[in-house]
Design goal:
Helices cover 0% and strands 57% of the residues. By secondary structure, it is mostly beta strands. Strands 2, 4, 5, 6, 9, 10 and 11 form a seven-stranded mixed beta sheet that branches.
């Protein structure tokens, strides 16, 4: 019902910035209510980075508050993650997430972000 495609991952030096994008393709019956970003560092479990609802209620992991900003273009079914002041600890595969009004979750394939020290 929902297909997610991420872009924007790259290799960047510590202190730098990146902007991730995720575009959702959905069936007419699928109503997206939440989009967001999770990440999976090497050898670690997946963790929430930031989420946003379609009425702009946002939530952030403590580790990224003040550095990352999530936003959503409802008309384009696109969610963005602006990442500033990047740290080596931010290195991970970043996965886009979407949930519909039925509560069913959808995941993208992921985009690699590598922060060098």
């Amino acid at each position: 019902q929902v297909h997610l495609v991420e872009s924007g991952g790259a290799l960047v030096q510590a202190g730098g910035s990146l902007r991730l994008s995720c575009v959702a393709s959905r069936s007419a019956s699928a109503k997206i209510t939440v989009m967001g970003w999770f990440r999976q560092p090497p050898g670690k479990q997946r963790e929430m980075v930031a989420t946003t609802t379609t009425n702009a209620y946002t939530d952030y992991a403590d580790s990224v508050k003040g550095r990352f900003t999530i936003s959503m273009d409802n008309a384009k079914d696109t969610v963005y993650l602006q990442m500033d002041s990047l740290k080596p600890g931010d290195t991970a595969v970043y996965l886009c997430y979407a949930s519909t009004s039925t509560g069913f979750p959808f995941w993208g394939q992921g985009t690699q972000v590598t922060v060098s020290s």
